[in-house]
Each structure stands twice: as C-alpha cells, then as structure tokens.
Amino acid sequence: MNNIELAISTDFMGEQPELEQLHSILRKIADAGFTHIHWCHEWEGDYIYSSFEMQQIREWMDECGLQGKALHASKGSRKNVNIRREHYRRDYTSDWEYNRKAGVELIKNRIDMAVCLGVHEIVLHLYPPHFTILEKPETKENFYNCVYKSFDELMPYCLEKNVRICLENLFDMPGEYMLEIWDRLFEKYPAEFLGLCFDTGHANIIWREKTPDIMKKYKDRIYAVHLHDNNASVDFHRLPGEGNILWKSVMKILADSPYEGPVVLEVNSYDPEPEIFLKKAYEAGCYLNSLL
Q1: What is the pLDDT of residues 247-268, one digit of tens each?
Q2: For 68-126, what is the HEC assignment?
Q3: Which of 60, 78, 94, 196 is deepest in the core (most CB within 10 A)?
Q4: Cα dihedral angle (167, 25, 46, 70), rounded to 10 degrees?
Q5: Does residue 262 have a cis bond before it (omega within 30 degrees)?
Q6: Nearest to residue 10, comparing CAs of 265, 273, 225?
Q7: Assessment of whether the complete model's pTM goes beyond 0.85
C-alpha cells in the first residue's frame, strides 16, 4: 500500500471555468497517487467564494479521498505591483481605508475557505511598490503602515481560526525588497500568525546559487512551500529535476525547518494529457520526498 503523502497545486492545467473540469481534475490528482491538494484557483483577483462553493469543493475532496495542505489567498485585483498610484479593488495595502478593509475582507474569505478545506496555511503575496519607493522614498513607511494595519486586523482572526498567513517570496522586485519584508514583518508578528512560503523557482531567479543561504537564514519561518524548477531566467514552474535548482541542498534545509510536509508541487503542465503529466509529477514528488 502506498503511504507516501504528496500534494500538488490545483491549477497545474490552468483554471478552467467549467465546474465539471474542476471536479475531473481533483479526481485525476487522486488517481495519480497524490494525497493532498494546494488550492490555487482564484489566487489573484477579487473573487469572493460563497460558503456553498467551499462546501462543494470540500465534498469533492472527500469523495476523491484528498486532503488539503494549503490555500493560495489573493492580494486583490490585478494591478501593476511595481508602482503605487491608481487604486484597485480589495487591496489590503491600500491607503484608501475602505478599500484596505475590503482587502482584509477578501483575505478573511480565504481564511474561512481554508477552515472548510481543512488547511492551516494560506499563501499571500506582498509587493512593495519599489519603483515608487525608489522615486519617492517617503512613500515606503506609508505603505508599510497600511500593511501593519491590515495584519493587525487579521492576526486575531487567524489565531482564532488556527490559520497561518505565509508570505511568498516573489521575483517581481529586487531581492533586497523581499528580505526587507521578511525582516520587518517577522520581527513584528509571531510565527503562530505569520510565516513564510518558500518558492524555489522564484528564489532561483532572484538569488540563484545563494538560494540555500537565503533559505537557511529564514528557515525557522518556513511553514509552506511551492516546489518547482527553472533555469534561473524564466518562471517556468517545471517539474523538479528539469532545471538547475540544487534540490539536495534545498530539501536538506527544508528538513531542518518547521515545515511538516507533505511535499507540495506548484507546477505547470506542458502535456495536453493531464494523466501523463501527473504521472511525471508524482515521480518527481517521490524523489523530493526521498530527500527529506
């Protein structure tokens, strides 16, 4: 009997609008041997899940014998994340108070969904508008004050629901901005509320051979992962082993972190047949699991 626990992101084939497709994808994930899912649908945008949609997804998971590992929350409407100028809907970093509160409401919606799906981590993006900060340094503290205000409101809700927010490392900004985010927020907020989602592909693009050193420095906050590969130039989300990431080093550090598993693959399919891709993904996941 197979007792290896592995997780994969639900949007590995993209986000099809038909519910039949979503149901079918969950079944195919389970049939391939995966035991857990990382819910990544609607990871961006201002979509609010109904409690009935949450219940439907949970029933499909139960039907397929799948458990939840994590859920990707949304920062709000799509926007140019490098500048701070116009305002966009449901933005928890906004300096328009009602819009900021709407962004908090959106994150709370994903916290509620996490509870329904039985997961204890939500992954969240945070983008300092680094072009604006470079041009107008005085805007930095205003930006962070808005973030602090939102996290102050979210922390009691998260602690009550037993759901941790994990900030993902991104590649849309110079690496020092990402490190400043972690340094500021991890000093201000406890690990019970705020952790780190370490994305190997994004780290490889920004830090390359320094990735293990960065990972080691912040390993005590790693509670979620996005594991995928690339060649350090484009965010391909390829299967582990198809790029140049030093997986033995990465997995050794992960094994020494608070991360409890299972291995989570956040990969994109390059095969029109999901069954073929999932078979390869499962084998790659087993390899990473063996390194732990």
Answers
A1: 999 999 999 999 998 999 999 9
A2: EEEEECCCECCCCCCCCCCCCCCCCCCCCHHHHHHHHHHHHHHHHHHHHHCCCEEEECC
A3: 196
A4: -20
A5: yes
A6: 265
A7: yes
